[in-house]
Specification:
217 residues, mainly alpha, Tetracycline Repressor, domain 2, 71% helix
């Protein structure tokens, strides 16, 4: 049931999701679903936790592992999940996220940040800086990907159309005067490549920040 709920949410989004729609997909009555969950919110929370199970958690028993690599792995996988399931972002702030997969992800995040050597009073700040960044980045990227899919165009086509529309409007030209220069400097032939470069640079910047703060004690 939860797997089918996730599939429907991926296909139609949270706004169109209903117990009646899920029941039709399963070939049962809507009322029969309430033998398994008390409310629609309960099912959405189960779906959210199932999706968190897709985040790759590094081997925390490996004493020789570099925390930087583990942080890169966690951030990359978390971003992928947020993009793959664009309906997830609003639910993360709505529910407690205390299912087994959600708590395993949270435990892995705390464990990796402890390994950075940051003083205890700074560890929650580091978690906020890194993973709230990833949440925001993945949320915006996921919504962009979904917008392109809804419009029936590729990400590159959508980007070119948007930039072309901006270039045609004199009132926007001043505000975006250096946009072409920045875009060229960031590199990448496609939107996906540009976005990957941005994400990688940002994560490395955060890692460097953690190292600098650790050195300060």
């Amino acid at each position: 049931m939860t797997a089918v709920a996730v599939r429907l949410l991926d296909a139609e989004g949270a706004a169109k999701f209903s117990m009646r729609r899920l029941a039709a997909e399963l070939g049962v009555t809507a009322m029969s679903l309430y033998w398994y969950v008390d409310t629609k919110d309960d099912l959405l929370e189960l779906a959210l936790d199932r999706v968190f199970g897709e985040v790759r958690v590094p081997d925390l028993t490996d004493e020789a592992a570099d925390w930087r690599d583990q942080l890169r792995e966690l951030t990359a996988s978390y971003r992928t999940v947020l993009v793959r399931h664009s309906w997830v972002s609003p639910l993360i702030g709505k529910y407690l996220n205390i299912g087994p997969h959600s708590t395993a992800f949270s435990a892995a995040v705390r464990a990796v940040v402890r390994r950075t050597g940051l003083a205890p009073h700074g560890q929650m700040g580091a978690i906020s800086a890194v993973f709230q960044f990833v949440y925001g980045f993945g949320t915006i990227e996921g919504h962009f990907v979904q917008r392109c899919a809804d419009a029936g165009v590729s990400q590159d086509e959508y980007f070119q159309q948007a930039m072309g529309a901006i270039g045609e409007q004199p009132r926007f030209k001043a505000a975006f005067a250096n946009a072409d220069e920045i875009t060229a400097a960031r590199g990448g032939e496609t939107v996906a490549e540009m976005r990957q470069r941005d994400f990688t640079f940002a994560v490395e910047l955060l890692i460097a920040g953690i190292e600098a703060m650790r050195a300060r004690g």
